[in-house]
Task: structure prediction
Amino acid sequence: MFTHHDRLRPSYDVVIIGAGGHGLAAAYYLARDHGIRNVAVIEKGYLGGGNTGRNTTIIRSNYLTPEGVQFYDESVRLWQDLAQDFDLNLFYSTRGHYTLAHTDAAMRTMRWRAEVNKHYGIASETVDAEALRAAVPMLDLSCGGHAPVVGALYHAPGAIARHDAVAWGYGRGADRRGVEIHQRTEVVAIELEDRGSGPEVTGVVTDRGRIATRKVLCAVAGSTPGLLAMVGLTSPIYIHPLQAMVSEPVKPWLDPIIVSGSLHVYVSQTARGELVMGASLDPYELHSTRSTLDFAESLSMHMLEMFPFLADVKVVRQWAGMADMTPDFAPIMGMTPVRGFYLDSGWGTWGFKATPVCGKTMSHTVARDESHPLIGAFGLDRFRRYALTGEKGAASVGH
Result:
């Protein structure tokens, strides 16, 4: 699907570090919308091999803050036309999304989120346990007697898509427009120069040679701290493993997406019948994508509390990604104190659903050298100004 390039050019207008969904989407929209085609996407591994290929593919916009709701709503709108843009089946499937509430306090939060969503024209509403029983008859509302369900937030636009196809679609679209994608190429240094007004990007050094450029976009998720160190910047990002697993295929029975913050579990069923399941972050910092037995045991226990009839279903595989978390559970996007160095990071557990809107907003930011209006609240300088965006109430479960 992609052109193989034997060597790097001496220079590019833009270098994007990271060939995941976000980096490839930015390259695609730079070429398609802004006419900037002399672009190199540099990836030390393989295309889509990071968090883009290691998530649970849930797409939604039922966030808590006005900034988050508007941002993800635009992403959902873009998702719906993406397969046609690519001429590629992304298996995009609107399912509806239930966030379970197990306490009265949780239901108050669901009502709060529903009202914020409705204010911005997003289809979200609270439902009681009986409505949930009718919609998902297989769900044990008592949850084994440990955490009975009292209601839920229902988000009708909730959807899933095939994550690797999204990376392929953006990659192929960028490639056809002249963007070069260089896999198995590692960035070892970023060159800066200070001409009296602060540091500016002048080049990128890779293990295959040097590239002259004035613009670098960093879209490397869990590897962000290392890239920031190359340009002398720091951030409050911390890295935690985020694990998931998938079952053997079974007859389709679960149409909506089910999420429980109290049980720390979320699940959807693919078109092939597999149950894709995930949980919250591992409770320790670790720059690693290893998986653990403790995760599989814990998640299986909570799944059986909700769906006890799954006891004999087998787990086929499990995996992990590196979640780049921020203190306010919102991303870090836009320009930085280093001129020509742009950041798309801090995605934690919710980066896949933002792929299209990140590409659109970051390509705008790079092309025009000004932050797109939708990402104004997500700048790196908000931590210095103590102007955090409190999104934890809608993103604290890894989904």
The first strand starts at residue 14 and ends at 17. Residues 66-86 form the longest helix (21 residues). The mean pLDDT is 95. The domain at 14-55+164-237+327-395 is CATH 3.50.50.60 (FAD/NAD(P)-binding domain).
